[in-house]
Design brief:
Layout: H1 5-14, E1 22-25, H2 28-42, E2 47-51, E3 64-67, H3 70-80, E4 84-85, E5 95-96, E6 100-104, E7 115-124, E8 129-135, H4 142-148, E9 153-158, H5 166-175, H6 180-199, E10 202-212, E11 218-220, E12 224-227, H7 249-256, E13 260-263, E14 268-272, H8 275-287, E15 294-297, H9 304-315, E16 322-329, H10 334-348, E17 355-361, H11 364-372, E18 378-381, H12 384-394
Parallel strand pairs: 14-16, 16-17, 17-18
Antiparallel strand pairs: 1-6, 2-3, 2-6, 4-5, 7-8, 7-10, 8-9, 10-11, 10-12, 13-15
C-alpha cells in the first residue's frame, strides 16, 4: 500500500528520523495559515509547497514550488491545488492534486555547502535479505544513476534474522564520504530508518534526497514508503492512511470484493485462480495475438459471487474485446465455477463480447457440460491450446 509523503514523514519522525516541519493544506487559504504557523514555530521565512500524489518526479511537472514569503504561498498553492500533475510516473493523463504540504525550507546558508544523498531500504528477494542502498547522487532519479554511474551506488545487505548491525551503519556512512558530526548523524539516521522499515513492515522506505545540511544535520527532505499489504493486520491504524482517490477505481472496487486486480492496457480480459496461472494466461493471450487487459486473480475459493464481481469489473473496461476465464480446479470444483459463470452471465444481462472458459482439474468435464448446455454465448475449452485458439478467433 502506497502512502503520501506527509504520512511517511510523520511515521519516520516517530522513529527519531529528522524531517522538516510541515503542515497539510487542501486550499490556498489553509496553506497561508499553515505558513504563518510554521513561521511562528520555526522562524522560517521561506516555504516549500509540494503536491501530494502517489508518484515521483513531482518537481519536473510543476508540483514543487518555493515561496519566498507568506504572500507567495497563496499564489503558488492556488497553482498546484487542483492541477492535473503529469510526471514520468503518472503517464500522460497525470493525477489531480487534492492536497499539498507546506514545509519549512531546510536549505539554509552556513559555513559549508549542503549536499544531497540517496538512501533506501528494501527487500532483495534474490538474496533473501534486506538491502540498504545509498548514493552521493541524491536528488535525481536513482534509475539514471544505476544506468550511467552504477559504481556510485552503495549496497549493504542485512540479514533480517539478526537485523542491522552498528558496523554496517558506520560502513555505509563512511562510504558516503562523511566525517565528524555529519558522520555521527548519518549513522543514527540509517539506524532509525532501518528500525522504521522493520517496525512498520514496509516493503520499501526511500529518502531522496537526504540532506546533509550546512550545520551537518541529516534531514529527510522527501520520503516514500510502501507498506506490505499482507502485514496490515498488525498495523490496523495504517489502514486509515489509504487514499483511494489515488488508486484506480476498478482496483479499489476489486479489493472490496476480495479480488486481486491490476488494470493493464490490452484488449483481452482475463480471470483466473492463482497468480502463477494468471501470468501463464497473460503469456498465452499474447501468443494468441492479443494483449491482456488486466491481471485478475479470484483466489482458490472462486464462487458465483467472486466470478460475478470479476465480470462486472472487467466489463467496465471499454478496451476489452473478449474475456478468458482460466480455472484450475484444485481446491475449487470446476462445475461450481461453471455454474457461477452462467449465473453471473444471467445476472449481468446482455454481454456483447465473447467469453472463453477453460476449466481443468476437479470436475472439469461436468463444468464444460454446464457451459455448453447453458445456451449462452460462452465457449468452453479444456486444453490451453484450445483456449488460445478461441481467443485468437474472438479477436478476428
Amino acid at each position: 500500500m502506497n502512502i503520501h509523503e506527509y504520512q511517511a514523514k510523520d511515521i519516520l519522525k516517530s522513529y527519531g528520523v529528522v524531517v522538516p516541519a510541515q503542515k497539510l493544506a487542501e486550499t490556498p487559504e489553509v496553506a497561508v495559515n499553515a505558513a504563518r504557523q510554521l513561521f511562528e514555530e520555526t522562524k522560517t521565512a521561506v516555504f516549500v509547497l509540494k503536491a501530494q500524489i502517489h508518484a515521483g518526479g513531482r518537481g519536473k511537472g510543476g508540483g514543487v514550488k518555493i515561496a519566498k514569503n507568506v504572500e507567495e504561498v497563496y499564489q503558488l498553492a492556488d497553482q498546484i491545488i487542483g492541477m492535473q500533475l503529469v510526471t514520468p510516473q503518472t503517464g500522460p493523463e497525470g493525477k489531480k492534486v487534492n492536497k499539498i504540504i507546506v514545509s519549512e525550507d531546510v536549505y539554509y546558508p552556513g559555513a559549508s555547502e549542503p549536499s544531497e544523498i540517496y538512501l533506501s531500504v528494501l527487500l532483495d528477494r534474490a538474496k533473501g535479505c534486506d538491502v540498504i542502498m545509498a548514493s552521493t547522487e541524491g536528488g535525481v532519479d536513482i534509475e539514471e544513476v544505476a544506468e550511467q554511474t552504477p559504481e556510485k551506488i552503495i549496497k549493504e545487505w542485512v540479514d533480517p534474522k539478526v537485523g542491522l548491525q552498528a558496523y554496517q551503519a558506520r560502513k555505509v556512512a563512511f562510504a558516503l564520504g562523511l566525517e565528524g558530526l555529519a558522520l555521527k548523524n548519518m549513522i543514527k539516521f540509517i539506524t532509525n530508518i532501518y528500525k522504521a522499515y522493520r517496525g512498520i513492515d514496509a516493503s520499501q522506505v526511500e529518502i531522496n534526497p537526504v540532506l546533509k545540511a550546512s550545520d551537518d544535520a541529516i534531514i529527510a527532505v522527501d520520503a516514500k514508503i510502501n507498506l506490505d499489504d499482507n502485514a496490515l493486520y498488525r498495523h490496523k491504524d495504517f489502514i486509515a492512511l489509504r487514499d483511494e482517490s489515488e488508486e484506480d477505481p476498478l482496483e479499489v472496487e476489486a479489493s472490496k470484493s476480495g479480488l486481486n486486480y491490476v488494470k493493464l492496457d490490452g484488449n483481452v480480459g482475463c480471470m483466473v485462480n492463482g497468480a502463477g496461472l494468471a501470468m501463464a494466461t497473460m503469456d498465452m493471450i499474447k501468443l494468441s495475438g492479443g494483449e491482456p487487459a488486466n491481471f485478475l486473480d479470484v483466489g482458490g475459493g472462486a464462487n458465483a459471487q467472486t466470478v460475478e464481481a470479476g465480470f462486472r469489473i472487467i466489463l467496465q473496461d471499454p478496451n476489452v474485446k473478449a474475456i478468458l476465464i482460466n480455472i484450475f480446479g484444485g481446491i475449487v470444483r470446476c462445475d461450481r465455477v461453471a455454474s457461477g459463470v452462467v449465473e453471473a452471465y444471467k445476472n449481468i444481462g446482455q454481454i456483447d463480447i465473447p467469453i472463453i472458459v477453460r476449466l481443468q482439474g476437479t470436475n472439469a468435464e461436468e463444468g464444460a457440460k454446464i457451459i455448453e448446455e447453458s445456451g449462452l454465448r460462452v465457449v468452453s475449452a479444456i486444453l490451453l491450446k484450445d483456449a488460445a485458439d478461441c481467443v485468437k478467433e474472438a479477436l478476428v
